[in-house]
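Could you help me review a protein record that somebody else here produced? My question to you is simply how this chain folds and whether the C-alpha cells agree. Thanks in advance; the entry in question is below:
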Amino acid sequence: MYIRIHDFFKSKDAKGNYIKEDDTTEEFKESITKLAELEKTNLTNLAVINLKQQEYARCVEFCEKAIELEGPDSFSTVSIKAYFLMGKALIEHTEYTKAQTCLEKLVALATINNDD
C-alpha cells in the first residue's frame, strides 16, 4: 500500500489533479501542504518497512528522500525519524563511518534545537 502511494507521488498525478483548481485559494495551498507532509511521512514509513525486511539500501534511500524534502537542517519529527532509521540501517549494513556521521547530525540538530 505504501509503495502504491509513493508511486502516486512520484507520478505527479497528485499535484496534477489540482490543475483545474485556482492555485491562489487557501484551500488549494492547504491541500498541497498536507500532500507534501503525507509524502514525507510515507517515505519514513517505507523506510521502517524496508529496515524490518532487512533491505538496508532501500531504507537509506527512502530516508535520504525524506530528509531532502524536509530540509537537511530541519529539526522535525520526519527528520528525526529519517536520520535515526538511516543510522540504524547503515549500522546493520556495516557502514559504520556513514552511520556515525548520520547519527552525529541527529545529535547536532537536537543540540541546536535544545539551545533555542
